Amino acid sequence: MEAAGDEERPLLHRPPPHLHQDGDSRYTNDGTVDVIGQPAVKASTGNWRACFFLLGVQFSECLAFFAISKNLVTYLTSVLHESNVDAARNVSTWIGTTFFTPLVGAFLADTYWGRYKTLVVFLSVYIVGMLVLTVSTTLPWMMQSSNHGEIHRITVYVGLYLTALGNGGIKPCTSTFGADQFDITDRSERVKKGSFFNWFYFLNSIGSLLSTTVTVWVQDNVGWGVGFAIPMILTSLSFMVFITSRRIYRYKPIGESPMTRASRVVVAAARNRHLELPEDCTTLHRLPSPPSEATFNVHHTTQFRFLDKAAIVSPSTHEKKGAAASPWRLCAMSHVEEVKMLLRLCPAWASLVVFFMITAQMSSTMIEQGMAMDNRLGTFTVPPASLASFNVVTMVVLVPIYDVVLVPLARRATGEDRGLTQLQRLGVGLALSTLAIAYLALLERNRLAEAAIGEAVSIMWQAPAYVLMGVSEVFTVIGTLELFYNRAPDNMRSMCTAFAQLAIAAGSYLNSAALGVVASSTMWIPEDLDNGHLDYFFWTIATLGALNLLQFVFYSMRCNNNVACLQRHQY
Description:
Structural class: mainly alpha
CATH superfamily of the largest domain: MFS general substrate transporter like domains
Mean pLDDT: 83
Distance between the termini: 51 Å
Number of domains: 3
Shape: globular
CATH topology of the largest domain: Growth Hormone, Chain: A
Order of helices and strands: HHHHHHHHHHHEHHHHEEHHHHHE
Low-confidence stretches: 1-23, 290-296, 563-571
Radius of gyration: 26 Å
């Protein structure tokens, strides 16, 4: 029995024989292996037969995540009786943690476990978190004495942060493990790989749409327990199907962690800080290029020259250069330039932090604003969190319109193949998000004026803000994915994807901090918003967004002037 168990376990650390050198078309040519560590057979592994199960995992996880996040501020204020400021701040902190943990998951997947095992471990944690959260909804009825409210609160937050931890392995691994199922050396499979990403994004949007409409309505009208139990059951079922289908997946052997490589450059530069940089950059340490393979080299640049010290061959290491030299003392010049590429992305990343601080309002203050408005639409009562469906529908509709209509029109004006450059797309998105938050400030000012005379403003006036946010996300989020993919080193693209997601975490944490400052120094967001000035808070964020846009424009101009330093060449 032990031997059988070992046979089924993926042997990801063992590199497969290169059978493709013999021209055997039965096997993949990209180094992927099957569940027992042998070269993957095309006819029985990978491709769409494997991706269906991964898309099921992604859809159920997305449904569960948005079932929590879209209406969490309502749960915290109405069930746990938290104040408006505390609820908004706690939601932002939880979302921030959810998008911070992917760095941990990406590191474990790339360095130790591989993507399949990482998914199995973190999906298990995620399901346990959903179970705890679902069970916690019954505690108020189980504890009629009401002296145990703090136990209920602790249980809720244990469940929430278990799901945040579980997301850490799911978000960075689902899409990349799905991409692993297609052989990039096979032209037909490359086409299918592009289709996989389209369906991946589509199911994300559908999961979000269902959560903001059906699931939110169930939570508000049927019960929180049912609203949390449905996505938990779906996630559990998809998880069981996922692990029972392990024999048909393709697995990539684990290589060197890009995070480790980047850390070595920083450490080596610091240890060699006393050395003088040579005038001739060709004397810096370079790895030999395999003559049988086409490889990518990176132009040496003079920006961030301190890092060049990591590649200095000192007299004490000259004879030991190569395998005997410590990688924490001597790094290849190409590795140094990879770290420089990451640093050049930092200004764009900083702009994204403010952008995601603005979009974080959709899960916090915008819902609280909606709770203070008239949510009746004829005979139907609209849950405030359901207004986010305008955001999702806008993204689903605009993506094909952008490709089919806007890109050709913009191409005629700009001459760019994609209509707008990546930086231009980001700039448009940043500007639209700033306009959206300014609109919310004007709406809140009008709502307060109407409330002063005893009138209520319809919640549907929030819809234009959600639509503007959706348009801004289409430009910014997709532009971010393109920017961080195209301008990242070839072997660090997975880490850069996680780095881009870290901006969502930082934006949520920044929003949480801003709400904390508001709570301690002002009365802008009291329990009764009619007695506060939520519009002041929105104007403050709008001002920050405008300053952020100016910073981004300045960065874009500098980047365009130095675009040559970001280019790579093949030899």
